[in-house]
Amino acid sequence: MSRPASYLLDTHVALWWFNADPRISPEREQTLGQSRCLISAATIWEVAIKHRLGKLPVAPQTLLRCAMEAGFELLDIHPRHAAATAELEPLHHDPFDRLLLAQARHDRHQLITADAALLAYGRGVERL
Fold first, then answer.
1. Which residues on adjacent β-strands are paired with residue 75?
2. What is the CATH number assigned to the segment(s) 6-127?
């Protein structure tokens, strides 16, 4: 029996989702709405840093609340995820994105992104 799809959302995808951004097609919105979706602690951390620096108006607490209200699962960062980043080719240098990909691959989720550098990894990554 095959495992149902589970999707780990890249940070920008999570922000677009909760802002009903038109960059998420109605078809993709429907697929995600009917699937198991996850938000990583790395995403909350990235939003916290960018919010603190004034680069992002969304507070991490807001994103966390929206994710929980939407029924998204929260994905913790484990040492095995951090270690798995060493197995990735150096196609992308953003540490948050590398951690998200490592989490997706290790835990067998599909990482949903619009980031071309992440999409270049292929396995474990799906275009928004």
1. 40
2. 3.40.50.1010
